[in-house]
Design a protein that fits this description.
Blueprint (H helix, E strand, L loop, with lengths): L1 E4 L8 E4 L10 E10 L1 H7 L16 E9 L11 E4 L2 E2 L5 H4 L10 E2 L11 E4 L5 E3 L14 H12 L8 E5 L3 H13 L3 E6 L2 H9 L4 E4 L4 H8 L5 E6 L4 H10 E9 L19 E4 L5 H13 L6 E5 L3 H10 L5 E5 H9 L1
Parallel strand pairs: 10-11, 10-13, 11-12, 13-14, 14-15, 16-17
Antiparallel strand pairs: 1-2, 3-4, 3-8, 3-17, 4-5, 5-9, 6-7
Helix pairs in contact: 3-4
Bound molecules: zinc ion (2 copies).
Length: about 350
């Protein structure tokens, strides 16, 4: 099969031939129909998470496809079923896995970092529970579910207890994850939903996803957001950027007993102390979501569909796709279509 590999010391991917994996025991081979390229992939290529990455590896953690072959112990999963693939593959036995938090399993694997991921024609998923059937949604359409939608859903679930009717919540960063978060906030809460971004095009999409107020980043952005909250401050802020600047903004606009949820991996820091935050503010990070969150993302998509625009690329074009994501020219999600590449190569 064709796979885009990250070799030691490399900062770009190389598409090579690899042996197609064969499922054993409980594992499932998925023919990858779509693999999303995420900002965290850029951080991996830049060497920011070197301690978490096994090189050589096939990156790609946002994966959807169809079940192509199953191990002898897998039951009730038909070949050809469209599925979204869970990003974290836990051991299934530790306290975190047994309570549903497979993405936090200390022995677990992560697709695209410590195990071969979705930038290939096929991915071997270690257990059938890590694939979630998509029902009437196509695998390509369901590609963003495994990271963008899952992380956004988990973040919204985390802050939902703070969001009483009429309270305000701000989403910082209205890219792929942010747009899903805005959609879920409008579907699941009665809060006033504010989006902030430095890109006018992202704010256009934020308005389409249901944001009540779309705010372009500028010097006085905190004052503008506080105006929308009648001076009370936000009950919750979800930061999908995570830079020093966005965390400072979150601290400025979060009101008494509010919550700041951090997902963005830009490496910023927030000063923690009585002077730097409103009284009794809660700080939390969000690390992907649980397996049951992914099931819920798929279930919600059946009734409250958010059509995420996809910019698609062949596998052979993956470095071009990465450059486009880096330059900020992609609206919606950048998705590699490995099976399309296979057909192009063999035709
Ligand atoms: Zn991701
Ligand atoms: Zn575990």
């Amino acid at each position: 099969m064709r796979a885009a590999r990250l070799f030691p010391n490399a900062t770009t991917l190389e598409v090579i031939d690899l042996t197609t994996p064969v499922p054993t025991n409980d594992s499932v081979r998925v023919a990858v129909m779509g693999a999303g390229i995420c900002h965290s992939d850029l951080h991996v290529l830049d060497g920011q998470f070197e301690h978490l990455v096994r090189r050589p590896v096939t990156p790609g953690h946002e994966i959807a496809g169809v079940v192509d072959a199953v191990g002898p112990d897998v039951q009730g999963l038909d070949i050809g079923t469209p599925v979204a693939v869970m990003v974290g593959w836990g051991c299934g036995r530790c306290q975190w896995c047994l309570t549903g938090y497979e993405q936090l399993c200390p022995q677990g694997l992560e697709a695209g970092s410590t195990a071969d991921g979705g930038f290939a024609e096929y991915v071997l998923v270690p257990h059938a529970r890590h694939v979630v059937p998509l029902g009437n949604i196509s695998a390509v359409e369901g590609t963003p579910f495994g990271c963008a939608a899952l992380c956004a859903y988990a973040a919204v679930q985390r802050v939902l207890p703070w969001l009483t009717a009429g309270s305000a919540v701000t989403v910082v960063g209205a890219g792929g994850l942010g747009q899903y978060a805005l959609h879920y906030l409008r579907s699941l809460s009665d809060a006033i939903v504010i989006a902030v971004d430095q890109r006018p095009s992202a704010l256009t999409r934020a308005a389409e996803a249901g944001a009540h107020h779309c705010v372009l980043s500028h010097e006085q952005v905190a004052a503008e957001i506080l105006d929308y909250t009648a001076g009370e401050g936000c009950r919750a802020v979800i930061d999908f950027v995570g830079s020093d600047q966005t965390l400072a903004l979150a601290a400025q606009i979060t009101g008494t007993r509010g919550v700041i949820a951090l997902l963005g991996l830009s490496g910023g820091h927030l000063s923690y102390g009585f002077e730097s935050l409103a009284p009794e503010v809660t700080l939390t990070t969000v690390v992907a979501g649980t397996l049951s969150d992914l099931h819920e993302v798929v279930r919600l998509a059946q009734t409250h569909r958010l059509t995420m625009p996809l910019t698609t690329y062949s596998l052979e074009d993956i470095n071009h796709a990465i450059d486009d994501l880096r330059s900020g020219t992609i609206s919606g999600r950048a998705v590699v279509l490995p099976q399309l590449a296979a057909r192009t190569v063999t035709s």
